[in-house]
Amino acid sequence: MIQFENVSKAFGDLVVLDKVSFEIPKGQTTAIIGHSGAGKSVLLKHIVGLLKPDSGSVHVLDCDMANAPQQAIYATRRRMGMLFQQGALFESMTVGENIAFPLVHNHKALSASERDDRVAEVLTQVELPGMQDRSVVELSGGQRKRVGLARAIVTQPEIVLFDEPNSGLDPVTSNAIDELTLHLQKLLGITFVVISHDIVGTLKVADRVGMLYQGKLIEYDEVSRFIQTENPIVTAFLKRNVHLPDATLPALEDIVGGDS
């Protein structure tokens, strides 16, 4: 579904991605973690073609996102959905109008009734049935995330990208979003790609996890093997964020200088 081959990206003297190579399999949830500034968002922008690598290649759904014509890149984007960090909902629109927005602009062949049916369907899937006419300003943080997720899946995409899906949520609401993400992935079979610093939630929803550190993808594996890694940077990062049985693992600040 998605393939990075020796992707490098720098902004001036700052190297953000350094010869990153990995493949994201179809029909699974893949998560990329790392401390703030590790390059997670930059990686995500390469997937949607908002950034182009300085070297290497990014293939998404058989499209070369670095070199394909802009029309082909736009067509590939229409096969993807996106859940933005802060929801990115239009407050001047109702819940239903927000969810229908990509249908109106990218699926013009659908009739108004077909759009309404699709909106009602995804609202039920995110456990907000009958909220089409609700004002966005009336929504809680968790409800905004659910509406954003409904908009991300309303076009029946092949890939959905999650940008910090638990950002700004309390632990109870965050856990509810994780449970919903798990349910929808199993229900719809869509390829989910999550970037997050919420390690507990990430390990719960993901099939595979990768960690970016100083521009390198230093570990990438299935969750069960990822948490058993012998890489000291990864184990220290996990130790700070989740309970691991080995209490003798080094503290993260001892390895990365205190900035996690």
What labels describe this entry?
Rossmann fold, 260 residues, 2 domains, alpha/beta, four-stranded antiparallel beta sheet, disordered C terminus, six-stranded mixed beta sheet, 10 helices
Q: How helical, in percent, are the residues?
A: 25-40%
Average pLDDT number? 88
Number of helices: 10
CATH topology (level 3) name of the largest domain: Rossmann fold
What is the second-level CATH architecture of the largest domain? 3-Layer(aba) Sandwich
Weakly predicted, low-confidence segments: 244-260
Largest beta sheet: strand ordering: 6-7-8-3-9-10
Number of strands: 10
Task: Please tell me the total number of domains.
Answer: 2
By CATH's scheme, which homologous superfamily of the largest domain applies? P-loop containing nucleotide triphosphate hydrolases
**Pairing-aware structural class of the strands and helices?**
alpha/beta
Strand content: 15-25%
Largest sheet: 6 strands, mixed
Radius of gyration from the alpha-carbon trace, in angstroms: 19 Å
Order of helices and strands: EEEHEEHEHHHEHEHEEHHH
Explain this structure:
With 260 residues, this protein is α/β, with parallel strands linked by helices. The protein folds into 2 domains: 148 residues, Rossmann fold (3-Layer(aba) Sandwich), CATH 3.40.50; 69 residues, no CATH class. The chain contains 10 helices and 10 strands. The strands form 2 sheets. It has a 6-stranded mixed β-sheet, sandwiched between helices. Strands 2-1-4-5 form a 4-stranded antiparallel β-sheet, covered by helices on one side. The longest helix is centred in the last third of the chain and has 18 residues. The C terminus is likely disordered.
